[in-house]
Amino acid sequence: MAFKRCVLAAAFILGLVSIATAEDAPKPAVGEWTKKAKFTLSLTQSSFTHNWSGDEVGTVSWLSAVDLLADSQVKPSLHLTSTLVLNFGQTHQQDAQRDNWLAPSKSGDKIEYRGVARVTIDKFFDPFFALSFDSQFFQRIDGRSEALNPLTVGETAGLARVFHDTKTSRLTSRLGFGLRQHNDRLVVAPVKESTNDGGFEWRTNGRFATAEDKTVFKSELTLFQALFFSGTDQELATFGEERWKTLDVRWQNQFSNKLNKWMSLDVYLEYLFDEQLSKAGQFKQTIGVGVTAQL
Q1: pLDDT tens digit string along 85-112?
Q2: To pair with 63 at 20 to 30 A between CA atoms, which of 103, 138, 183, 225?
Q3: Helix-, strand-, coil-residue percentages of the chain, each rounded to 5
């Protein structure tokens, strides 16, 4: 836990550095699209002869990632932003005798889309509508496998405030009412395959970059307070309490720094608190150096 806190603090400090050094470039002209794409592949490998005296085993671990952004003030009264993040990776490991390779396990699996349409009315707040899509390429449980599972789709409408906006950086906060549809085809009856909930959502997004995106820090903090949940009865039967009533928190941070034209250092940290999944907060942390290409 202490290590994770140190890494989180380091990423935050690096993010502040990137904010401080970001160029205050002017915003793109109306109708002009800002398009960014980043592709990353990292690989770790180890091997040992059969008579190696230690108890280590050979491993091959790889992780691929795609990060896409399309952003435009399409007309004076409408701003559109779309982001798509994909990553997938596997770890292959030998058995204890180093004779055979075990079935690979996933080291990463994520599909995340965010789309926001903001009506720019030159007031303190702008009305917005947002669409989100969260899933995995596949999920396998007890020999059963399903593609795009579990799947959560969300729609939110409300008011947004842009605190900082240049060509290289932006900080936006949104508050609204959201609906979420969750589908899990691998649940066991009598648990429902599909559930719906709705409530208030506060989401703050920041992206700060230096010239030519050599250093990029992205952060997204989401708070969701549900007001209703269609699976209340099954939750009472499973847990004996209504966990859906607690506040959901998700905080994602990503720091990326290009070491040279083809190599980059990437740090990802995520904190998740959702009592329907676990009564304790969950942490995810990845650090990698890999081959990268930016467009």
Answers
A1: 999 999 999 888 878 888 889 989 999 9
A2: 183
A3: 10, 60, 30
Distances 69 to 72, 95, 126, 184 between C-alpha atoms, Å: 10, 41, 21, 28
Total tally of structural domains belonging to the chain: 1
Please count the other Cβ atoms lying within 10 Å of the Cβ belonging to residue 213.
15
Residues 144 and 291: their CA atoms lie apart, in Å, by 34
Please state, in angstroms and rounded to a whole number, the distance separating the CA atoms of residues 59 and 90: 10
CA distance 274 to 282: 9
Asked whether residue 151 is assigned to any structural domain, the reply reads: yes
Q: Does some domain include residue 171?
A: yes
Phi/psi of residue 28, each to 5°? -60, 155
Q: Which of 94, 18, 2 is nearest to 52 (CA)?
A: 94
Q: Is the peptide bond before 150 cis (omega within 30 degrees of 0)?
A: yes
Q: Which helix (H) or strand (E) holds 13?
A: helix 2-21
By residue range, what is the domain housing residue 290?
Answer: 2-33+71-87+108-294
Query: What is the model's pTM?
Result: 0.84
Report the sign of the C-alpha dihedral through residues 253, 207, 112, 290, in that order: negative
Q: What residue type is 154 in one-letter code?
A: G
What's the pLDDT tens digit per position in 205-217?
A: 999 988 788 899 9
The reply to whether 103 falls in a domain is no
Can you list the alpha helix ranges (DSSP code H) found in 90-249? Answer: 232-239
